[in-house]
Design brief:
By secondary structure, this protein is α/β, with parallel strands linked by helices. It has two domains: 186 residues, 3-Layer(aba) Sandwich (Rossmann fold); 71 residues, no CATH class. It contains twelve helices and twelve strands. It has an eight-stranded mixed beta sheet with strand order 6-7-8-3-9-10-12-11, sandwiched between helices. The chain has a four-stranded antiparallel beta sheet with strand order 2-1-4-5, with helices on one face. A hairpin with a 2-residue loop joins strand 1 and strand 2. Helix 4 packs across helix 5 and helix 5 packs across helix 7. It starts with a strand and ends in a 5-residue tail after the last strand.
Amino acid sequence: MKPVLNVQGLRIGFYLDDELAVAVDGISFFVNRAETVCIVGESGCGKTVTSLSIMRLIPPNGRIISGRIIFQDIDILNLSETQMQEIRGKEISMIFQEPLTSLNPVFTIGDQIAEVIHTHEDLPTEEVEKRCVGLLRLVGMPFPEKRLHDYPHQLSGGQRQRVMIAIALACNPKLVIADEPTTALDVTVQAQILGLFKELQRRYHISLLYITHDLSVVAHIADRVYVMYAGNIVEEGNVYQIFYEPRHPYTKGLLDSLPRRGKREKRLKSIPGMVPDLANRPSGCPFHPRCQLAQKICRETAPEIKDYGDGHRVRCHIME
């Protein structure tokens, strides 16, 4: 079975003071049909940049240096902007982190859902309105006929995120990219949105690429996980492997920082230091300045990724 999305050797850089700083350093990953894949890591690891590159929406000072992004046998990096517009929103859609800044405040919810449909399909106005109501009902919006005429500021945070999901599903995409879509929501609403994702995927066999820093979300929805640090994928595997058989010190550090049910601690554990600056990347393994197990080889040589079987792969000298 061919993956819906297959990213190969992707390198992305940003121009900072006329120098190209690498933000994503040759990563490879894939997403199968009807599968949920999570990319997890701290802020600044390159997760969002990766997702934006798939949509061909990286900022003007960014550049895709090399690599391939294969979507259904098509390398989207070779497409013209006109060709990409036919795919963006129809075949691949994206749900952004903060819906209030993603939705247009001067247009109604119905207008914004309808715009996506009109862009990609030639349907009469009445048919489009029926589909908009159906989409709002699908994502659990109360009184969808009424909400169709509301503006974004009239909705709660959870309702706005449901609208964003409805927009993403408007043209029955093959792949949905969700970039931290529940970060700004309270725990109860977050659980409702995650449950909605799982139900929609079960019903429509959508492939979902979920970007997050929250491992509790990963445990709830993921089939497979890629752990990302400083533009590199440092560990990949299924949910069981990542949570119960972690091998990379960074993955272990992320897991150790989670609060434990029934275990009282004075202070939560944390990983010392910060994600390195793009313009000042450390030599060797990018994690070695924060790693308590780092040795001389870690400081001098970047590790290759090694396969431990059953899809569990780790980029670390110490694990070898």
